[in-house]
Write a structure and sequence with these properties.
There is one protein chain. The chain has 222 residues and is an alpha/beta fold. It folds into two domains: 79 residues, no CATH class; 127 residues, no CATH class. The chain has nine helices and seven strands. The chain has a five-stranded mixed β-sheet with strand order 4-1-7-5-6, with helices on one face.
């Protein structure tokens, strides 16, 4: 039984007792023949007690139940204070797996990110390393080979090895002049997620010609 039903029931019982008391007062001879417990004058207090309890239940319920306006404000505040999720969505990670299968082989990647973007960096590295296709029933032979990732252990904490100037936001992709098509393909992949992407043909000294060097900015999204 909920609070409203209980309150209403107490009001009804109190009203019935009050009606019976009024009837007994107008028939004293009949009242005198009733058992003392039934004919007692103390029943006059029963309606007052029941209605007092019903009133208390109403007050408690009113205080305990949040107003819709307050609930809406609290809900809005919760939305505003919830920090954004860091990293790529599950759907985009699955799409990355297929996109990296289209990269010409052999392929070499280098991926660096500031500490705040280590989450999406790890997701990207995982997508690169898992983009492979084995021959059926020949687990040691690859139809599409895995791309190589250079300096992976070092680049997990690149700042430990000296200062590094990261882009302010988005992603920067560096490739050789002869690998512009791959660079533009990856740029469009990330732009599909509203990530700002820039690119150039400047690679670190002694880099292989097929290196794809990806730098995350301090903020992934603007």
């Amino acid at each position: 039984m909920d609070a409203i039903t209980l309150r209403n029931t107490l009001f009804v019982i109190g009203a019935i007792i009050m009606g019976i008391e009024q009837g007994l007062r107008s028939a004293p001879d009949f009242r005198s023949r009733l058992p003392r417990a039934v004919a007692s004058e103390y029943w006059n207090f029963a309606p007052l007690i029941l209605m007092t309890v019903a009133g208390v239940i109403w007050v408690v319920r009113t205080v305990a139940t949040p107003k819709p306006e307050l609930t809406a404000v609290m809900s809005s505040a919760s939305v505003l204070t919830t920090p954004p999720l860091l990293g790529f969505s599950q759907e985009f990670q699955q799409a990355l797996h297929h996109d990296f299968l289209r990269i010409p082989r052999p392929c070499v990647f280098k991926v660096v990110a500031p500490q705040d973007d280590e989450g999406p960096r790890s997701q990207l590295v995982s997508a690169i390393m898992n983009a492979q296709v084995q021959f059926l029933n020949r687990p040691n032979e690859m139809l599409i080979a895995t791309c190589q990732i250079v300096d992976e252990e070092k680049d997990r904490n690149v700042l430990l090895y000296g200062p590094h100037e990261f882009p302010s936001s988005g992603i920067t992709i560096h490739t050789s002049q002869g690998n512009i098509e791959t660079r533009e393909f990856l740029a469009e992949v990330f732009r599909s997620q509203s990530i700002e992407v820039t690119g150039d043909s400047q690679l670190p000294a002694d880099s292989p010609a097929n290196l794809i060097y990806i730098e995350f900015g301090h903020r992934l999204y603007r």
